[in-house]
Specification:
Helices cover 45% and strands 16% of the residues. Helix 10 packs across helix 15. The strands form 4 sheets. It has a 3-stranded parallel beta sheet. It is globular and about 55 Å long. It has 15 helices and 10 strands. Strand 6, helix 5 and strand 7 form a beta-alpha-beta unit. It folds into 2 domains: 189 residues, Periplasmic binding protein-like II (D-Maltodextrin-Binding Protein, domain 2); 88 residues, Periplasmic binding protein-like II (D-Maltodextrin-Binding Protein, domain 2), CATH 3.40.190.10.
């Protein structure tokens, strides 16, 4: 029997539907793990929580990836949801071209780069839109704080129910970092058995959620998601879960290059500085 261990996962918001992977407790209990979600803040606060040992893992990716590119001792070890970002706007904004001169909420540089590429594919110069304050929910758009914002479930489902307009779906936005697992180099080196158990449990949780909609629905409601949007929020998440845990070298390289540009890192950064899928490969081959 594996040693029983409590582990913490830092997330940006307790209500994010992507967190249901960790609320599905059975796969983790089978590995002798009890997972506790914590919310230390966003951005740099997530990175600091990892580096200070206040969090063992995080499913928030953009800030830690940028920190790792800058030399922080962090590693991306698993991808469990590879898409999900959508662009929602005020209902009177009918097409992407109507965003010219409008304010789009600020988000991470990694997601923003993908958004700008999507705007360009629709013939809109990213410089023709204004950068608004950070907004991650429909309420900010409805209150007039910004005209549009990138959102994840359940906020996407809430936006639809509130009458906002989806201008760009997840497939059009592409593959900015969504959900996965990152941890410290120290934990990777000193606790490979725990990481293997954590990865195996997360893959099993993803598999169960993809196969059992009733389980997912119950967990979404456990998050506190209103029942009237729970089904849509679940669909927006489960439809993009990644049962392989991996991402291509091409996507890894693109994330690194975007992060280098955002953080001003001049030298080249090898994939191995940021990503380590060796334990994932061991789990899958075992």
């Amino acid at each position: 029997m594996a040693e029983r261990r409590d582990v913490s996962v830092a997330t940006a918001h307790m209500g994010l539907t992507g967190n249901i992977v960790f609320l599905n407790r059975e796969p983790y209990e089978q590995e002798g793990l009890r997972v506790r979600l914590i919310c230390p803040g966003t951005g740099r606060a997530i990175v600091e929580a990892l580096l200070r040992g206040e969090a063992d893992y995080t499913n928030v990716l953009a800030g830690p990836i940028m920190a790792a590119v800058g030399g922080a001792p962090l590693k991306f070890i698993l991808d469990y949801q590879h898409r999900g970002w959508e662009l929602w706007a005020r209902p009177e904004i009918v097409t992407v071209s109507d965003l010219v001169g409008k304010a789009i909420a600020q988000t991470s540089p990694l997601a923003e780069k993908y958004l700008h590429a999507a705007l360009q594919r629709h013939g809109v110069d990213p410089h023709a839109v204004r950068a608004g304050r950070p907004v991650f929910s429909p309420q900010g758009i409805l209150a007039g704080e910004v005209d549009a914002a990138l959102m994840l479930a359940p906020m996407t489902a809430e936006a639809e129910r509130a009458g906002l307009r989806r201008l760009l779906g997840a497939a059009e936005i592409g593959d900015p970092p969504t959900y996965g697992l990152m941890t410290t180099n120290e934990r990777l080196q000193n606790r490979p058995d725990e990481l293997g158990r954590m990865i195996r449990a997360t893959l099993n949780s993803v598999k169960q959620l993809m196969e059992d909609p009733a389980l997912g629905f119950a967990l979404v409601k456990e998050l506190g998601t209103p029942e009237e949007v729970a089904e849509a929020a679940l669909g927006a998440t489960v439809g993009h879960l990644n049962p392989t845990g991996e991402i291509s070298a091409e996507i890894q390289q693109r994330w690194i290059e975007i992060a280098r540009e955002a953080t001003g890192v001049q030298h080249s950064v090898p994939l191995a500085q940021v990503f380590d899928f060796n334990i994932l490969h061991d789990v899958k081959s075992g």
